[in-house]
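Chapter summary example.
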Amino acid sequence: MKQAVVTIKYDEEKLNAVKQYMGKKDADFDAELKEVLGKMYEKYVPQAFSVQEKMTEILHKLQSSPQGFILSDLLQSGQRGETVAAFLGVLELLKMSMITISQAQAFAPIYIFAKQGDTHESR
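The structure predicted for these 123 residues follows.
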């Protein structure tokens, strides 16, 4: 990957203080800045989310959590596209009779469970 150089203006005294105290803790200034830029990238750059990938993720999660899990556990990025893909994945798996869901009341968490018994029965 081609690297770019980032130049910003910042208070010199504060910058020197940060570098001084980071040096005492064996922290790497450049590595810390790269980590912050990485988090900014994840926060602001839209990602493509696949409904099929979310369906697969749901099924894998159910294998490791047979007691079920909360829909929000699937949402790591906080991006709207991921929420839509996860919800559509849930609806598709419901349609295929592979999962069941439960919600105590409106706006309460949605719980996802593996379908018990024959997953190929018709409705």
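To summarize the output: The CA atoms of residues 45 and 106 lie 31 Å apart.
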